[in-house]
Specification:
binds adenosine-5'-diphosphate, ATP-binding, nucleotide-binding, glycerol kinase activity, ATP binding, 23 strands, alpha+beta, globular, Carb_kinase_FGGY_CS, Nucleotidyltransferase, domain 5, binds SN-glycerol-3-phosphate
Length: 497
C-alpha cells in the first residue's frame, strides 16, 4: 500500500473543512473556511452552494499543502456533511436553481402542518423513522419545486437533480458523473423508506417529488467515482458519504448495538447504535440509518438538538458579548437564576415544537453578561439530559458514559456541567475530529487502507474523563428550572395556515 493518507471533507453548517488522516487514524493537517449564513427573512436560512463547493475545494488544497504531501499520496476522499440541507441544480450546466435551503430553515412549517393534518405522521414514523418537521429535506424540495419558476416542469422532464450536500459535493468532485447519496443522508430526507431501503412512493407522492430528480442511494463506504482530473491533476477515488452525526458515531468506533456518542457542533445529536433493526420512534426521538456497508445497514436512535453551538455564535455575532466562541468561558459560580432556551427555530427533540421561540427567563436587576454566557452553555447540557431521559425510556438503556466530540467539546465547563446534570461521566477522546474521522475510516475501508471495522475497534482513545461532581438534589432542582423555562418558550409564534 503506497497511498498513506485519506482525506475527509467535513462540510458543517458553519464551515467547510478538509482533514487528512494517516493510517493510524491520526490527524495530519486541517484546512478550514467559514461558510456565509444567509437569512433572507425571519425563519429562513440559506447557504450559497457554489460557495460551499469552491471553499471545500480550497480547503482540500490547503490541507494537502499543509500536510506536505501530493494528491497522489491520497488513497481516497470521504465526504461527511451537515444533513438535510437541500440543493437542486441543472444537470446540464451544474448551476443551482436557488440557494441551498439549510436544515435550520422553517419556511415549510405550514407544508408540514398540512401533512400532519392529512394523518401521515404514523406512516412517516414507521417508514422513514422521522417526525414530520420542516427540518428534513422533503418539504424543502416541495417548496423549491413549487416556488422557483419553471422548476417543477424541468424536474419532471429530468433536467434537474436534487441532493443533500454530500450529493452536491460528489457531483462536483466527479465532474457531474456521479449523482449519488448514501443510506445515512437519504434517511434524513423524509422521502426514503428505512425498512425497504428504497425511495418511498407514498412520501414522494405526498410531497409531489418526481423520481427523475432523485440521486441513486448507495453504501456509505463504496467508490462512487474518481475526482475530475482538472481538480487535483490525479484521479482520487471518492469512496465514502455519511451524514455528519453518523460520521461521528463511526469515527468514535460505536460499531455495536448500545454504543452511543454526543456531538457538540452547531447542533448537537445524541445517537445510539440500535443494530440491524430500526426502533419505532417515540418520545420525540427519531430512528435513522447509522451506516450502510456491503448493502447492510445499521440503525440508530437519535435525539437531535437544533441549537447548541449556534447559541454561542449568536452571543458572538448578534449580541456581540464575546469576540470568539472560545471566549465562552464561565466566570460566575451560577447564572443568578437565569435560563436561556435557545429555541431560535423551534424546539427539536424531545418536544418538536416548531412554534416555540428563544427565551431568556429569570432575569432580575442583578443579571449580567456573565450570567447570560453561562446560561447559554448550560442550555446545551440541559437539552442533552432531556434527550438522555427520553432515550432511557424508549430504549431502556442507561447512559453509563457519554462519548463526546465536535467543535464545542473543547469547552471544559460545558463537559463538566453536562456530567453534573446527567450524573454520568463524560468521555472526551484525544481526536475530537470524530466526524471527519468517520468519513475517512469509511473511505479507507472501501479502498483497502483498513481491512474493516475490526481493525478500527480500538480507535477511541480517551483524553479526559469528566466525573459528576454536583450533588444530585441540586442537579435535579436546576433541571426542573430548565423544564419550566422551556414551557415559557413553547407555542410562541402563530401557526401558519
Ligand atoms: N470553546 C467553545 N465553547 C463553546 N462553544 C464552542 C467553542 N468552540 C466552538 N464552539 C461552537 O462549536 C460550533 C462549531 O463546532 P463544529 O463541530 O465545527 O460545527 P459544525 O460542524 O456544525 O460547523 C460553533 O457553533 C461554535 O460556536
Ligand atoms: O453542522 P453540524 O455539524 O452541527 O450538524 C448539523 C446536523 O447534521 C443537522 O442535522
Amino acid at each position: 500500500m503506497t497511498k498513506r493518507f485519506v482525506m475527509a471533507f467535513d462540510e458543517g453548517t458553519t464551515s467547510a473543512r478538509a482533514v487528512i488522516f494517516d493510517r493510524q487514524g491520526q490527524v495530519v493537517s486541517v484546512g478550514q473556511q467559514e461558510i456565509r449564513q444567509i437569512y433572507p427573512q425571519p425563519g429562513w436560512v440559506e447557504h450559497d452552494p457554489v460557495e460551499i463547493w469552491t471553499k471545500q475545494l480550497a480547503v482540500a488544497r490547503e490541507a494537502i499543502r499543509k500536510a506536505g504531501i501530493s494528491p497522489s499520496d491520497l488513497a481516497a476522499i470521504g465526504i461527511t456533511c451537515q444533513r438535510e440541507t437541500t440543493v437542486i441544480w441543472d444537470r446540464a450546466t451544474g448551476e443551482p436553481i436557488y440557494n441551498a435551503v439549510v436544515w435550520q430553515d422553517r419556511r415549510t412549517a405550514g407544508l408540514c402542518d398540512s401533512l400532519t393534518a392529512r394523518g401521515l405522521a404514523p406512516y412517516v414514523a414507521e417508514n422513514t423513522g422521522l417526525v414530520i418537521d420542516a427540518y428534513f429535506s422533503g418539504s424543502k424540495v416541495q417548496w423549491l419545486l413549487g416556488n422557483i419558476p419553471g422548476a417543477r416542469e424541468r424536474a419532471e422532464r429530468g433536467e434537474l437533480a436534487f441532493g443533500t450536500i454530500d450529493t452536491w459535493l460528489i457531483w462536483n468532485l466527479t465532474g457531474g458523473r456521479a449523482h449519488v447519496t448514501d443510506y445515512t443522508n437519504a434517511s434524513r430526507t423524509m422521502l426514503f423508506n428505512i425498512r425497504t431501503l428504497t425511495w418511498d412512493e407514498r412520501m414522494l407522492e405526498a410531497l409531489s417529488v418526481p423520481t427523475a430528480l432523485l440521486p441513486e442511494v448507495r453504501n456509505s463506504s463504496e467508490v462512487y467515482g474518481v475526482t475530475d482530473r482538472a481538480l487535483f491533476d490525479v484521479e482520487i477515488p471518492v469512496a465514502a458519504a455519511v451524514g455528519d452525526q453518523q460520521g461521528a458515531l463511526f469515527g468514535q468506533a460505536c460499531f455495536s448495538k448500545g454504543m452511543a456518542k454526543c456531538t457538540f457542533g452547531t447542533a448537537a445529536a445524541l445517537m445510539m447504535n440500535t443494530g440491524d433493526q430500526p426502533i419505532v420512534p417515540d418520545r420525540g426521538l427519531i430512528s435513522t440509518i447509522a451506516v450502510g456497508v456491503d448493502n447492510k445497514v445499521q440503525y440508530a436512535i437519535e435525539g437531535v438538538l437544533f441549537i447548541t453551538g449556534a447559541a454561542v455564535q449568536w452571543l458572538r455575532d448578534e449580541l456581540q458579548i464575546i469576540k470568539s466562541s472560545s471566549e465562552a468561558a464561565v466566570t460566575t459560580p451560577d447564572t443568578n437564576g437565569v435560563y436561556f432556551v435557545p429555541a431560535f427555530i423551534g424546539l427539536s427533540a424531545p418536544l418538536w415544537d416548531p412554534y416555540a421561540r428563544g427565551a431568556i427567563v429569570g432575569l432580575t436587576r442583578g443579571a449580567n453578561r456573565s450570567h447570560i454566557i453561562r446560561a447559554t452553555l448550560e442550555a446545551t447540557s440541559y437539552q442533552i439530559r432531556d434527550v438522555v431521559e427520553a432515550m432511557q425510556a424508549v430504549a431502556g438503556i442507561d447512559v453509563e458514559g457519554l462519548k463526546v466530540d465536535g467543535g464545542a467539546c473543547v469547552n471544559d465547563f460545558l463537559m463538566q456541567f453536562t456530567s453534573d446534570i446527567l450524573g454520568a461521566p463524560v468521555l472526551r477522546p484525544r481526536v475530537v475530529e470524530s466526524t471527519a474521522r468517520g468519513a475517512a475510516f469509511l473511505a479507507g475501508i472501501a479502498t483497502g487502507v483498513w481491512s474493516g471495522r475490526e481493525e478500527l475497534a480500538d480507535a477511541f482513545e480517551l483524553e479526559r474523563r469528566f466525573e459528576p461532581a454536583m450533588d444530585r438534589g441540586k442537579a435535579d432542582t436546576l433541571y426542573r428550572g430548565w423544564s419550566r423555562a422551556v414551557e415559557r418558550s413553547r407555542d410562541w409564534v402563530e401557526r401558519c395556515s
